[in-house]
UniProtKB/TrEMBL annotation:
This is Glycosyl hydrolase family 25. SMART domains: Glyco_25 (SM00641). Transmembrane segments: none annotated. Residues 585-644 are annotated as: Disordered. Cell wall-binding repeats lie at residues 338-357, 358-377, 399-418, 419-438, 459-478, 479-498, 520-539. Keywords: Glycosidase, Hydrolase, Repeat. Residues 604-633 have a biased composition (Polar residues). Residues 634-644 have a biased composition (Basic and acidic residues). GO terms for molecular function: lysozyme activity. InterPro entries: Cell_wall/Cho-bd_repeat, GH, Glyco_hydro_25, Glyco_hydro_fam25_subgr. The keyword Signal does not apply. GO terms for biological process: carbohydrate catabolic process; cell wall macromolecule catabolic process; peptidoglycan catabolic process.
Length: 644
């Protein structure tokens, strides 16, 4: 079709946007400044057209496409409705660009060409960096030569590999206009190729779109199966395509910082919600993280689910990582930084909230643990500063309180330190050896002896061992000598054994119950003979008045005399069967009444089985009663030490 000639970006010549003769791979007129006049005949020859040919071209550096009173206008002053932002697209044809000047001239975005003559556009790396630094949002496009979906995927991979190291914050476009490749294919096949490219770009986390002119959109592409946004090209007149997101309106725009003509584009759609600055991207089977559109390298990142460390290649580190002397562990599958407990090679480690591996003491959920210098959780015995601790062999928790190990009991204080020596627990005393093991049985300290029961508790009070009674003071030390724990007196030998029966102590004799060990006070019958013990328990001897009655207690052994006569200090007495002594009154003839002949030794030589008189009266017959003032003779009541 011959008619009005337009020169467009990436389109060297087209009639009304319907005839394309661009060759991106050739070093021809792409984006060169137009300085001459072309004759209709010459153009007819080039395009293969005949007939009348009208040419109308805007002057170089044409004004227009700028903001006037808040609105963008075309060359003829027509307002361009719905514009969100103004931008440009450039490639090697623009040469060196002053991007700060560009940004200052109301340019918010740029689409950069990526390929030239089969290689990376020589200005791409420079442009993407400097444009980004100037605050211009950067997108990219590739002039496609694909004829199959696989070729389109390869082109997508080419672009993705190129842009992955840069802050791409605008779409990546598939430039559909090459007549010798795509243009030779049916629309359905062209759409299949476009979709293959866009799907690959989208999968990598970028925003894909399709660049084409009105003619291609109407005739070369099956739009019913192409569902990606469109960047339409139509110069100097409004495009026919109804719903593009961007319009390439002229190839002869003028922008500060660029020498020569440049394509000017208008964005209709706010892409901010569709172009997140922070996201994961998978490119060529490798996953990268972008923050503020920039791939993160040698940096910690947080994607909202956790922390990751991106290495020098931009890949998430996995496994062990050392940074600034601290050790971290990144999940071997996801790369996410581990916090809390982690089991690795049968050893447990703890990583704090910052991800750093913990060493030394750790408090976690009310329990204490110890991590070795290599981070492994300690179990079993731990020695620190001459103190011992025990960490549970399964959980690693620091033990407190009683702990039985290998048949021995140990006590770990609230601080976890193993106790040694005396331990007081709720008023009960225990003794632990220097190795912390609890003592049972006899324990000697200096001149003191203690007995630790099977539970380890120090005995207090009465304790019978091997048929022998012992008494232990409140401090747990074994008692010796006289004690009065319950209002009764007892005597413990030097070996601690409770004395029973006769006791010689301090020149006095005592009698201690054979069943209870209680010291006798008052009358006591022992082996058929009666004895009397005063208030201090000492055995009484000689002529003694007890409860108004006289008794004679043998000075040599304390036995009470019965049924005899005796002479005491020149006075004669008769002793009845109950031991009561009665003074003999002398008759007028000087003889003693009732005397049978035993003289001078205080005994009659006769024995009676009668007990001492009860209440001072002789019953005249044998009884089983104790002396009236003695409450100590009922052996049936004497069932053990300390029992009243």
């Amino acid at each position: 079709m011959c008619g009005y000639l337009h020169f467009g970006a990436d389109t060297h010549c087209s009639f009304n946007g319907t005839t394309d003769c661009k060759d991106e791979e050739a070093d021809t007129l792409k984006h060169r400044r137009l300085t001459g006049r072309i004759t209709a005949a010459a153009l007819s020859a080039v395009m293969g057209c005949s007939g009348a040919f009208l040419y109308s071209a805007p002057p170089a550096y044409a004004a227009g496409y700028e903001r006037v009173n808040g609105y963008y206008q075309m060359l003829d002053g027509t307002v361009i409705d719905g514009v969100v932002a103004r931008g440009i697209d450039v490639s090697r044809w623009q040469g060196n660009i002053d991007w700060n000047a560009v940004a200052a001239d109301d340019v918010e975005f740029v689409m950069l060409g990526t390929r030239s003559k089969g290689a990376v556009d020589p200005y791409f790396h420079k442009n993407v960096k400097e444009a980004s630094d100037a605050g211009v949002r950067v997108g990219a496009y590739i002039y496609s030569l694909a004829t199959t979906p696989q070729m389109a995927v390869e082109e997508a991979d080419f672009v993705l590999d190129l842009v992955k190291d840069y802050p791409i914050s605008f779409p990546i476009a598939f430039d559909a206009e090459d007549s010798s490749t795509l243009g030779s294919l049916p629309p359905a096949q062209v759409t299949e190729i476009i979709n293959a490219f866009c799907e690959r770009v989208e999968a990598a986390g970028y925003y894909p779109m399709v660049y084409a002119n009105d003619y291609w959109l109407a005739n070369k592409i099956d739009m019913s199966n192409m569902h990606y946004d469109v960047w339409v090209a139509r110069y100097e007149v409004k495009h026919n395509f109804s719903d593009p997101i961007m319009w390439q309106a002229t190839s002869t725009g003028s922008i500060d910082g660029i020498a020569g003509n440049v394509d000017i584009n208008f964005l209709y759609k706010d892409l901010t919600p569709y172009l997140p600055g922070n996201l994961w991207r998978t490119i060529g089977d490798k996953t990268y993280y972008y923050q503020n559109y920039q791939m993160q390298k040698d940096a910690w990142i947080n994607d909202g689910t956790g922390w990751f460390y991106m290495n020098g290649d931009g890949l998430a580190s996995v496994g062990w990582l050392e940074k600034l002397g601290l050790h971290y562990y990144l999940d071997e599958t996801t790369g996410r930084m581990v916090t809390g407990w982690k089991q690795l090679s049968n050893s447990w480690y703890f990583f704090n909230s910052s991800g750093a591996m913990s060493t030394g003491w750790l408090d976690d959920n009310g329990s204490r643990y110890f991590l070795n210098a290599d981070g492994t959780m300690k179990t079993g015995w731990l020695q620190q500063m001459n103190q011992y601790y025990y960490l549970d062999e399964n959980s690693g928790k620091m033990a407190t309180g009683w702990k039985q190990l290998s048949g021995k009991w140990y006590f770990l204080q609230d601080t976890g330190i193993m106790a040694t020596g005396w331990l007081d627990q709720n008023g009960t005393k225990y003794f632990l050896n220097n190795d912390g093991s609890m003592v049972t049985g006899w324990h000697t300290e200096g001149d003191k002896k203690y007995f630790l029961t099977d539970s380890g508790a120090a005995a207090v009070g009465w304790l019978q061992l091997d048929g022998t009674w012992y008494y232990f003071n409140q401090g747990g030390d074994m008692a010796r000598g006289w004690i009065n724990p319950d209002g009764n007196w007892y005597y413990l030998n030097q070996d601690g054994k409770m004395q029973t029966g006769w006791l010689d102590d301090g020149g006095a004799k005592y009698y201690l119950s054979t069943s209870s060990g209680k010291m006798t006070v008052g009358w006591r019958e022992v082996d058929g003979a009666w004895y009397y013990f005063n208030g201090s328990g000492a055995m009484v001897t000689g002529l003694t008045e007890i409860n108004g009655q006289l008794y004679y207690l043998n000075p040599s052994d304390g036995r009470m005399a019965v049924s005899t006569t005796l002479d005491f200090d020149g006075v004669d007495y008769t002793v009845d069967a109950n031991g009561v002594c009665t003074k003999v009154e002398e008759p007028a003839d000087g003889t003693q009444d009732g005397q049978n002949g035993a003289e001078g030794n205080g005994q009659s030589g006769q024995s009676s089985q009668n007990e001492p008189a009860v209440n001072g009266q002789n019953t005249g017959s044998a009884t089983q009663e104790s002396p009236a003032d003695s409450g100590q003779t009922d052996s049936k009541k004497e069932i053990g030490p300390g029992i009243k």
